[in-house]
Amino acid sequence: MFDMILTWIEGHPGLSLGLAGLSVVTFVGSLLALPVLVARLPVDYFTDPRRHRNRLRQDRPMLYVALRGLKNLVGWALILSGILMLVLPGQGLLTIIIGLILSDFPGKYALERRLASNPRILGAINWLRRRSGRDPLLAPPHCH
Predict the structure, then answer these.
(1) Whole-number Å distance between alpha carbons of 43 and 6
(2) How many whole angstroms separate alpha carbon 122 and alpha carbon 120?
(3) Confidence band (pLDDT; 50, 70, 90) for 144?
(4) pLDDT value at position 66?
(5) 47, 136 in Cβ contact below 8 A?
(6) Could you tell me if residue 9 is inside a domain?
(7) Number of domains the chain contains
(8) How many CB atoms lie within 10 A of CB 85?
(9) What residues make up the domain containing 101?
(10) What residues contact residue 135 under an 8 Å CB cut-off, 6+ apart?
């Protein structure tokens, strides 16, 4: 298996170099973006049973749709980057979770709560929040 991967890399040097560069960019980008994104979450993000309505949706619907599209684009890019970081250098699981938080899809909140109920994952998120001078996120109700 390893020989096949090595052969493929040798046969595609440009693509391999591009993937390595993308790995470095996503690693550095996640190091810069993740603390900011995590610090902006409300303390009750995982425990609030209802989602807050965005006033921008009522006041400026076109801007709301554009920003929501951009947020989803960034979220899915982080999810894909996080998946790559599971085998490449980077904070894979944390990047995936932040990507999930930014993305919109059915069942999103149940998945977020389930992931955040893992003490190691919530601990990593709260470590970033402490470094930003923010209170820790409340742990979600226990998921079965």
Answers:
(1) 46
(2) 6
(3) very low
(4) 92
(5) no
(6) no
(7) 1
(8) 21
(9) 27-131
(10) 43, 129
Concatenating the DSSP letter of every residue in 60-77 gives -HHHHHHHHHHHHHHHHH
Query: 108, exposed or middle or buried, with CB in 10 Å at 0-12, 13-18, 19+?
Result: middle
Locate tokens 């999930």: which residue? 100
Q: In this predicted model, what pLDDT tens digit does every residue of 86-134 receive, in sequence order?
A: 876 667 777 787 788 788 888 888 888 888 889 998 998 899 899 989 9
Residue 53 within any structural domain of the chain: yes
Helix then strand then coil, % of the chain, to nearest 5: 70, 0, 30
For residue 15, being part of any structural domain is answered with no
Phi, psi of 104 (to 5 degrees): -120, 125
In one letter, which amino acid is 11?
A: G
- What pLDDT, on a 0 to 100 scale, did the predictor assign at position 136? 95
* Predicted model pTM: 0.59
